[in-house]
């Protein structure tokens, strides 16, 4: 499992870990039931606090992306299609909110945005 920390990004380290592991599980790069690095091992490899790594793992477990077996470690959970769909819907909504905000700054109307969207949609569905 490859995880890269960018100390200059402004994104908290635990969020970077959480996001990268989640994305690897969703994409299938990490298989269902595949063991994840131990919290201590990952912290050591990334040269960060165990507390930071633990926080990311706890969030992943809370959201159903991994599970823990006592004495064995943490493992990637199965890719739940409903969970993935909900995650993608949240991302789409956030992106749409960003578009609405940018459109407002540029004084674009809803109709202009919809026209842009329709053009993009048609170009990708030829």
Provide keyphrases for this structure.
60% helix, 126 residues, mainly alpha, 5 helices, single chain
Q: How is this structure best described in words?
A:
By secondary structure, the chain is mainly alpha-helical. 60% of the residues lie in helices and 6% in strands. The protein contains 5 helices and 2 strands; from the N terminus they run H-H-H-E-E-H-H. It has helices spanning 13-27, 39-46, 50-62, 81-105, 110-124; strands at 66-69, 73-76. Strands 1-2 form a two-stranded antiparallel ribbon. Strand 1 (66-69) and strand 2 form a beta hairpin. The chain is elongated, with a radius of gyration of 19 Å. The model has no long low-confidence stretch (mean pLDDT 90).
Structural class call reads mainly alpha
One letter per element, helices H and strands E, the order comes to HHHEEHH
Termini gap: 37 Å
Contiguous low-pLDDT stretches (5 residues minimum) are none
- Helix content percent band: 55-70%
Largest sheet: 2 strands, antiparallel
How many distinct beta strands?
2
What shape does the CA trace take? elongated
Mean pLDDT, all residues: 90
Contiguous helical run count: 5
> What would you report as the Rg, rounded to the nearest angstrom?
19 Å
Strand-residue fraction? 5-15%
Name the strands of the widest sheet in spatial order. Answer: 1-2
Would you kindly provide a brief summary of this structure?
The chain has five helices and two strands. With 126 residues, the chain is mainly alpha-helical. Strand 1 (66-69) and strand 2 form a beta hairpin.
């Amino acid at each position: 499992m490859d995880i890269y920390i960018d100390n200059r990004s402004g994104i908290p380290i635990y969020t970077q870990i959480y996001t990268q592991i989640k994305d690897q599980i969703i994409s299938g790069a990490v298989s269902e039931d595949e063991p994840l690095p131990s919290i201590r091992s990952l912290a050591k490899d990334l040269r960060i606090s165990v507390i930071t790594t633990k926080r990311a793992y706890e969030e992943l477990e809370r959201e159903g992306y991994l599970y823990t077996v006592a004495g064995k470690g943490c493992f990637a959970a199965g890719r739940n299609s409903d969970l993935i769909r909900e995650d993608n819907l949240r991302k789409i909504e956030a992106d749409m909110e960003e578009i609405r905000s940018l459109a407002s700054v540029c004084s674009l109307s809803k109709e202009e945005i919809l026209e842009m969207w329709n053009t993009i949609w048609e170009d990708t569905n030829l």
